[in-house]
Amino acid sequence: MAAPPDVKAMKVVVVGAGPAGVRAAQALVEAGLRPVVIDEGRKDGGQIYRRQPDGFSRSYETLYGTEAARAAALHRDFQAMRASIDYRPDTLVWNIGPKAVHVVSGTRYEEVAFDALIVCGGATDRLMPVPGWHFAGTFSLGGAQVALKSQGCAIGARTVMMGTGPLLYLVAAQYVKAGATV
Fold first, then answer.
1. What is the structure's pLDDT at 135?
2. Helix, strand, or coil here: 58?
3. What residues contact 72, with CB distance under 8 A and at least 6 apart?
4. Per-position DSSP letters for 98-133, written without gaps between them
5. What is the CA radius of gyration of the chain?
6. pLDDT tens digits, the chain, 182 residues: what are they?
7. Residues 116/7, Cβ–Cβ less than 8 Å
8. pTM for this one?
9. In this structure, are residues 101 and 117 in contact, taking their beta carbons and an 8 Å threshold?
10. Confidence (pLDDT) at 72
11. Rounded to whole angstroms, how far apart are CA atoms 152 and 7?
């Protein structure tokens, strides 16, 4: 009879450093593991709680609106566990094999072995191809939010936002705060 695996020695890879990935990594750290956290973003937070670039100093309320407290808690908790994880930002997972993820960071390729894999892929824009959706100056909702959070600029002074769901209202409110007419 084989001996049971040593859970503390398991190599766990978490793909994604948005809310789900951060909380998964936090649970693993609390269980005594040191997970590898891989994210294509340059900082934790994912799309919804994307951190602003270095040198920007906008308040959490300005960036995240009604989600400010949740964003601040997520960022604080991630910072608190940085020494307990193997964090790999700016890293793209381009393939998943039976026991390894294949990643690229800059020009460096690597296979990261795992015993267990947790995929926290996060938000995805789902675009409906209405007439004109492919014209210059047309952005997805996620793209409009990235421009505001990462570059500190609205995509226009007069914008039309179409769709459903809570993110639409959050981004619209953020654009109004930035001075745009929505």
1. 86
2. coil
3. 60
4. SSEEEEEETTEEEEEE-SEEEE-----------TTT
5. 19
6. 665 567 778 999 999 999 999 999 999 999 999 999 999 999 999 888 888 888 888 888 888 878 899 999 999 999 999 999 999 999 999 999 999 999 999 999 999 999 999 999 887 777 778 888 888 888 888 888 888 877 778 888 888 888 777 778 888 888 888 888 99
7. no
8. 0.79
9. yes
10. 96
11. 44
Cα–Cα dist 142/128, whole Å: 14
Sheet holding 100-105, edge to edge: 92-96, 100-105, 108-113
Q: Is 23 helix (H, G, I), strand (E, B) or coil?
A: helix
Q: Which of 6, 5, 177, 14 is nearest to 91 (CA)?
A: 14
- pLDDT score of 3: 57
Name the strand (E) or helix (H) holding 38.
Answer: strand 36-38
Rounded (10°) angle between helices 166-177 and 141-150 = 40
CA 161, 163, 168, 173 torsion-angle sign: positive
For residue 98, give the nearest of 86, 114, 110, 109 by alpha carbon. 114
Residue written as token pair 């695996």: 5
Whole-angstrom distance, CA of residue 93 vs CA of residue 37: 11
Residue 100's nearest CA partner among 92, 110, 108, 90 is 110
